[in-house]
Batch of 2 targets.
Target 1
Amino acid sequence: MQRGPISRALEREDTLAFWLLAPTLVILTLFIAYPFARGVWLALSNATVGEPGHYIGLANFEKIFADSIFRTAAWNTIVYTAVTTVFKLALGLWLALLLNRHFRGKSWVRAFILLPFIIPTVLSTLAWKWMFDPTFSVFNWLFWKLHIIDSRINWLGDPDLAMASIMAVNVWRGVPFYAISLLAGLQTINPDLHEAAAIDGANRWNRFWHVTWPLLLPVTMVVVLFSVIQTFADFQLVYVLTGGGPANATHLFATYAYQIGIGTGLLSEGAAISLAMFPALLLVVVFQLWYIRKVENR
Amino acid sequence: MARVMLKDLNKVFDGNHVVKNVNLEIADREFVVLVGPSGCGKTTTLRMVAGLEEITSGTISIDETVVNNLAPMDRDIAMVFQNYALYPHKNVYENMAFGLRMRKFEKPEIDKRVRQAAEILGIQALLERRPRQLSGGQRQRVALGRAIVRNPRVFLFDEPLSNLDAALRVQMRVELKRLHDRLETTAIYVTHDQVEAMTLGDRVVVMKDGVVQQQGAPLELYERPANRFVAGFIGSPAMNFVATTVASDGLWVESSGVRLRVPPAKAERVRTYSGQRVILGMRPEALRLANGGDSADYSFDSLVEVVEPLGAEILLNVRAGGAPIVARVEPSTRVRVQEKVRLALDPARVHFFDASTEAAI
Amino acid sequence: MIEGARWKKWVWFYLPLGSFIVALLFPFYWMVVTTVRPDGELYRPWNHPLYSPFWTSHPTLDHVRNLLTETLFSTWMWNTMLIAFVATLISLFCGVIAGYALARLTFRWAGILGTAIFVTYLVPQTLLFIPLAEIIRDYHIGDTPWALILTYPTFLIPFCTWLMMGYFKAIPKELEECARIDGAARWQAMVYIILPIAVPGILSAGIFAFTLSWNEFIYALVFLSSPEQKTVPVGVTSELIRGDVFFWGALMAGALIGSIPVAIVYSFFVEHYVAGMTGSVKG
């Protein structure tokens, strides 16, 4: 505990702030800013594994936009993000409303509910892959026993069904996060408001729509925006369940970038595919910043 | 023990000029109270003395040394906060010892000082406890103890009694006064409560909108307020103000319900306002029910609107020709609402204020 | 409030809640059952007459034993623990002090830097992994734990920073002011007074960071190549599959055991975890 020259130098707010932020800024610059710049350079070059390459302008982008698989991947990503978000929000909200009541074992339930979100994604996804396996699927068994099907369903092998199966897993994983976050938001709403509304004659639905929902909106927005970014950039689910197949039908930006960049070694093209995500992400983050500023200034 | 000098002190926050040219000389061992409504700049001034706010212009000196650029830790001052600011993760002993540890005092010395301070404040039994286990009054004492152990040159108080309930506040006020008499350290005390200001201060400084309105001994502010604001701020219930016009001969002031002669002591100065409006000020305690012997020069009729019996006295809320007036009368008085009463004014306790500048006449 | 009839409660509450719980937890149950199911039973097709999905009459620990002795699983566990632990420490250190600076100090660049840290979310790992792979290789830390220990903080620090900012803002400013008047320098007030009070927040952030590290996949996949260096997620998905053949018993055992550390940490600190998660969302 000395108060020598270093202590005195750190008395100034801006000096102290500088040193406190320095480690963070160093790490973020080295491992985010610099790679990002390098990624842009890569995407504008024709480098491959082993060949440093040289500048070729937007040729990579032209190439990938002409690539039908890329277009499929782009479309997939958008649909994947949109559909799963809607389901996660709806189911998460429903679950949050259910958890908002008092019942025995509530804290246990709340703790267990988060497991899909806690457990490493890849590991739980493996369990789903096993459950979807066309020869051994427990779902097939169930539907067969319920006389809904005669022959097996190829959950992950059928091009149309595969995407739906993947989305189901994503929703499964995401609902707890939405539910717990929205539950926290619900708990900040003063119960007096509900009671006043009930006395005023509002029924369940009205109370929800006019009291709960508007007050929950700020938390909802933040949760949705975080989730959209994560989902848009998702990799693990598709990689484990289908690897992008069957026949490149379930690729997302991330998995296709991996396949091209790392799988076939075409680094520059892979980088271009990754970067193609950036405009959409930028839009989402800008929107998020704008929204947060709006809420803060109210 | 030190002299504190504030010279031409100014503070601007984001374009708001919150402290304007404050000049104050605080003598060694003096207990000075800065008082005023919220936003008057008293707390900001205190924080500048503490070193918690940057000074926009002007100087603050402690014992002839200008301290503008000294960090709080180097100013040798102690501060007691409104919310006590006790370190929640340390017990009472450690709370009090923290400052001494930071200054690298020896263990035996720390122990001696802490126990001494604890004894003065009567908190020896609480030394092992954590702040959350203490009551409001006890926390306040610990906060005081923390300040005392350091033997600082100046004590600073930022509304320390505001968070206590009324009864405790009265009790702590007395204890603070006793403490100050015992320790004889220079102190600057900020409050919005004029009762605290009057009872604690050797000198009271009234502030409004960043400007010092008046400074002086409590009774001086009470008896000779420099302007209408100070007159209305000091004393409770507040002074009554009636807008009146000075008669052309300068000997009377009149409003729709009141007509009073100007007391001889003020006659000369009031005469210069002949024909103009002046504000008449009368404290509730300067009024009483008129009896037969009272001269008509210093009394007036009024209608009783509300009677507030306080036990030791009765507050009469009356109306004299449209002007609401509060009078403090004997507890034995028996009047009823809607009754007409005649009130008499003590001519030695009349105040006049310029209608536009609000300065005392 | 008084609500309607009993059966309504069953339909509108117990049933949906029960369904959610079953749906959310079933895969884990499946993991456990598969892990202890002997191979003979395991590979019965779904329409086999003896298919009994929900339990097994001959539980076995063969898969687990197999996993721990015949594969590098324990090495992967060790790797992952080490990486998660060190990355969390680094991120906590950076995040706590950065959070303090942004929450408590006023300086010109505060707004911009706060936004900048927030905006790193714009560049998820799946955007950076290709150029980063090159950089990792250039610095010769490819195929070592350092590749991950140094890169994980990129997504852990922003989160820790926001979380700690929220915590610091809730601590009254008077405590630091008092400490400084008492004789502490600014940094001493931060270290001796504020940080001890913020310990619950630091704990929440640390636990969340730890679980996030375990969950990371693409950097681990791309930066590590030797089987001994891999982390659990990567090892389980790459080494337990030979060509087209999936060793489901070992896979599920790996998935199950691989989930245990995180589940344990989580179970001890549920409140802190939830506080961390909701704190970051509420901003």
Target 2
Amino acid sequence: MAKVEFFVDGVKVEAEEGTSILEASLAAGIYIPHLCSHPDLESRGGCKMCVVYIEGKEGPQLSCRTNVEAGMKVTTQDERLKQIRRVSMEFMLAGHPHDCLSCKMYLKCELQAMMQYTGAVHGRMRDVTKTTTRINTNNPLIVREMERCIACGRCIRVCNDVRGVKVLQLNKTDAPTYEVYVGTEGDLPLKESECAFCSACVEVCPTGALQDMEGVFRADIPKQQALIPCSVQCPAHTDIPEYIRLVKEGKNAEACAVIHEKLTFPHSLGLVCVRTCESQCKRTHLNDPLSIRNLKRYACEHDDEQIWKKNLKHLDPTGKKVAIVGGGPCGMTAAYYLAKQGHDVTVYERNEKAGGYLQYGIPMYRLSREVVQGEVQDILDQGVNLVTGKEITDVNELKKDYDAVVLTMGTIGGKQAIIEGREIGHATTAVEFLHGVSSGNPDPNVHEGAKIIVLGGGNVAFDAARTSAKMGAKVSMFCLEARAVMLADDEEIDGAIEEGVELHDSTTNLEILGTAEKLEGLRYADITGFKFGPNGLEADIIEGSEKVEPGDYFIYAMGQKAVIPESFGIELNKFGFPVMKEGTVHETVQEGIFAAGDCITGTKSVVLAVAGGREVASDVDKYLGGDGDIDEKLYDREAHNPEIGRRVGFNALTREELTMTDISERAHSITNPVDQGFTLEQSKCEAERCLQCDLRCDFKKTVMWTEV
Amino acid sequence: MERICEVTDEALKELVEAANRAAEDDTVCPVEVAYKIAEKTLATTCGKGVMCRDGFRQVYLITKDFVDGKGKGEEDIDMLKEILGVIEETADCDLSYTASHTILELMTKFSEEFDAHVKRKSCKKLICAGCHTVHIDAAKCKGEGACIKVCEFGAIKGGAGMFSVIDQNKCTSCNKCIDVCPNGAIKGAGAVKPQGPTAPAPVGSWGAAAAGGRRRRG
């Protein structure tokens, strides 16, 4: 576009033709006051802050609405202009609370900044008491403190002109007050007004009139990140709103490319992720969170083109060698990124196959092994060497052949129950049991007709219980928590009960009864509550509720632990975790030996393991002389469409749920999937529900006079 | 300045005409017209611009104080001029321009009237509620009670065959009783108040001797 030169207070400024004097001056670092203008909104000129004189034009002119012309001479500072700005400010302040200190926008408020700039004061004008400030103040997500509103109209313009939702408007009371206020048609609450809760109005409000409800966005991280709570909460910070939008548009391959930017094993995660992202989804405050995991699953199940592979970054060989001990999700992820950074990577896996808990833990009815091995292969395709069936017994011996070693052995040992009588045996841990089933060597004690008692109430306990039940055993589970607050996902609990698992929630285990030859069962009692005191578990037992559950075999699902023998040669703390170098997350105190994933954090989740793998890869790359930058863009994003449009019923759209496989098809099979992925229609309906929190990050920042 | 808004000054037409005849027409008080223009502007504005919405709120509040006899003296006159000057110069629409321009003209042309309202709480034309009082001439009153019926404030006492009396503590000087009196017995008063009875009495009992008495308000 053509450039023109003009003058602001005698300073020559170059600007693009078609820009306003205000815009051009701000871009050149010359401040012209403004309040109702916003860089993303059409200027309306309502506040009069931006008045200037233009040579050859009579009287003050609006710099926000006047485009620059070649040779134009603009005066921004003058006594009369100052007076106009001050009087206009005082008009607005007349109806505004006097006390800035109690406002949450204190020091972030454009009105406050403009008050200082203009020297306006409360008190010269008659105080105006508004009568409309209590209208429509009870809304989800958006807090309206309308006594602070100056009716600049930014929220109305953004809602109508930018978002196209058309909910906000100027309303006016009848005689005798004739009060103009920002409201909705018929003063309906936002939810009934078809508000899309995009919160763009909050974003552009120059005062504290419109605010985000507290607790929706974190206050302890940079705002641009905090505004997308799902991505913040995802340990790998996947660009969730972006891929959900792509799924909505039917661009599954593109969605997968976005997912692959941050995640290895995305399809597996689409099936089994703990989805902490959903716990922070903004829509939870309207009805239910987005079904993010199932949308990811849908995208992965329909990624026919695999375009993510086209743009993968792969740096030239560095000649450095890295060994990774443990081929679970963390180790494989670290291997993947290190290989892409140009290093020569070898993964040592003690089992026959890589994949760790994905391969040997999670039941096949939740996660097909074809999916896992397909994703392992994707990693190997990046040039990762995999040595299976090889247990590393001495890390220092291994280190001799490598520039760096990464320990990602996970937590492979199941914890034993702390319960009287456990020395008589007749028990396994959930980890061992599931490993056996996955390897094709199921524990012979779990069989058709056997009576199995599972102790624990987490997802792993349910994995063990459901698998046992599917193998024909009669299963009863015991856990401390009440049904409503159990750690496992609801769908696991419901599925297990449907499949015949008997759940005894709110119980405490007292004793294992029997002899080394024959198990009798479990003595237990009902409880009203429990806590962990200094002496361990303190359960409030209901008197007289003691019972005995007969059983043939126990499965303990009490958590897992890292198992690193001393002979391994790594310095361990008293909890059995490697000792890390101070100030680092992933470097052990031993030179060139790193660690990540469950073996330093304790048992967490697959997605945390993947995130840990990414982090350690970056650290190791830096250690080996790289820049540690493992980020990549696998999908070239199109500019977001800021228009949402008005859609009746949008804010009330309900969450799509997966269709469960018919009970007859899943009750007796350890491989048949327990549920079916979304249909095309479901994927669109669910993706449509996204509030697109990220669109808010696209707004340009307004400039305050203190910032020029 | 650029007219951003398309709101016209059509709504002010009658009031502007009234303002133009304020010098000759005894039924038009320039201060009251200013107040009514401000009120009409608030009633008509679209509310998008600060000058109409918040500026005229101030003009309305200040001129309302003037007609209510609550003006704060010279400072209010100066403030009002400053405000109107800014609005006139930066008006978004014909409505706020004409309103501010007309009131400013009234303030120049009738500066004494404005002064009298603000400083002495006195309306020469006995129109502004807070700047005059209303009285019944007991000698002329025939006790027909039309005034009692029309008074919204219960400020007039009287009865069958009695002349009526206005309770000045309750009277708001709305002048409605003046218009309905068939005998022309009710009149407004400025600084000089007519002397009269404080309670109703039989018609004709308030003689000519009393009717002549007048005193200046202390």
